[in-house]
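Anyone have tokens for HEAT repeat protein? Sequence:
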Amino acid sequence: MEPLTAAVRDGDVQAVDTLLRAGADPDTVDEHGTPVLCLAVEAFDLPMVETLLSAYASPDRADALGRTPLLRAIELGAGDLTSMMVGRGAHLWIKDAEGRDALALARHWHGTDVVAELGRRSGGRGPVDRRAVRSDSGSLCEQLSLGGLTVRTGHAAILTGLERSYGIATPFDDLLSRALAEPDVDHDVWWATTDTLSGRRTPATWDAAAALRERPDPLERYFGAMVLRLMALFDESDDAPFEGPLVDLFLPWVASEPDPRVAWWLTAGLADTPDPRCDGPLTTLTRHIDATVRHAALSGLHRTIQRGDREALSAAVARTEDADVAVRQQACRTLGSAPTHDQDATAALAACLTDPAEEVRVEAAARLALRDDPRGDEILDGVPFADWSSPYDGLLYEVFRHRQP
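Reply: yep, here.
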């Protein structure tokens, strides 16, 4: 077997990289005429696909059945691989043996019963093996396996992304329906649909999302809050036209929202804005029953604490004893924004040096170091050398830069 083909089938990215650097052809095909890039796609091997594409493997080289790596990724429901192919310049108009281009194939699979099709193609009669898989972006989909064949349930997200690439403005209600068809809000279709809508930034989109506030289904409210927050978050215009309307809408909404998942989006949206009207509500939300909401509220209090608001400072100090580790760590991060002469903030950070969680101790030590307080230096000295993959890389670099003369 060709060494590159063997290495790709083995999933050995290091060996593949070595072979490519030594001159191996990234468009090598196996004994069936299948390009190694297609083999990597069929294995759902994202690092391998990225390695081959970086070596200029053609995203348009088809296998013996006329399927390009992009078309295979669409068939298999692999949203992350599809996005990578499109991002690397794969041609969208190349057609498969049935005359379907990327968009037509995505539409076909979106309307297909994936489990039934998997059984038909594999001939398997046993139960389908199901497991959740998470992409590098953090979104989820389900992976289904039967009779030696495997597909993923990313077809709705793939279709949504391709429609955007083709310049098609899918109606708001259609995108909402696609998201609601997947009750797990971490499924990649939720990001695909809301990101598409947030990119439009039109009054009609804003109004349609805002109207979902009144729906009894929490998933519809979640969708609306997510779209609105993303519209404001990703708006780079100088006049920030969505900031004021977001605060006007989110302040009364979060006060009455019973679903913590929706409340998180509302709180995160308020935390993004410097509007002083958010100071009091965010301080109150640090005591929310849900830890993710408390965390989001704390992240929005740094400006308030910088201005010397004692109530906000007290709220952050109280959260250093929270039951949730991430909340305690965020409390330290927020307290670090207090003026350096604020002894209450410094004392609270020093108390966190004995926290049972390492991430809280390191956060507190670093925030003290940035205040020129040496009490956490022993903890920082004990942290292993941090590189880009370390959770402390950015924090320790911030300390390093602060200490430079």
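Residues 47 and 120 are 30 Å apart (CA to CA).
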